[in-house]
């Protein structure tokens, strides 16, 4: 199993598993909703191309032990509700472990992002992956900033990351 994946893990309402190529059509609605990507510059405007690029990055991370997004499956319905995971990132020339999260628009405002992010934090600290974790959030993405704060993170610094102005939120092992 690639390092940092939460395969076979679960939270109260979610099952974590590796993202599969067959999840593509279920994840595509994320890119069809303009609000999903409104804060991030540089993404393809074609939803199919944007989704394909994301899937390629996820599978590349799996292959190179750079963490990756896990599919979040609802225990109740069995459907894909989002993706979340631990990602190896380089910020200011320092390798960090990020908690990344995205939820399908039809499942927004149900607490899935914070539930998944908290599970990632606990899993990372329980497995001694790092003494601190970050979340990279666009400066205008207030909903994702709220998730980071609810996950015990504090604003650490503001940077340009992949040509986007971002806040780096951080939580240290407690």
TrEMBL record:
InterPro entries: Acyl_CoA_acyltransferase, GNAT_dom, N-acetyltransferase. Pfam families: Acetyltransf_3. Residues 14-174 form the N-acetyltransferase domain. It comes from the Bacteria. This is GNAT family N-acetyltransferase. It comes from Flagellimonas halotolerans.
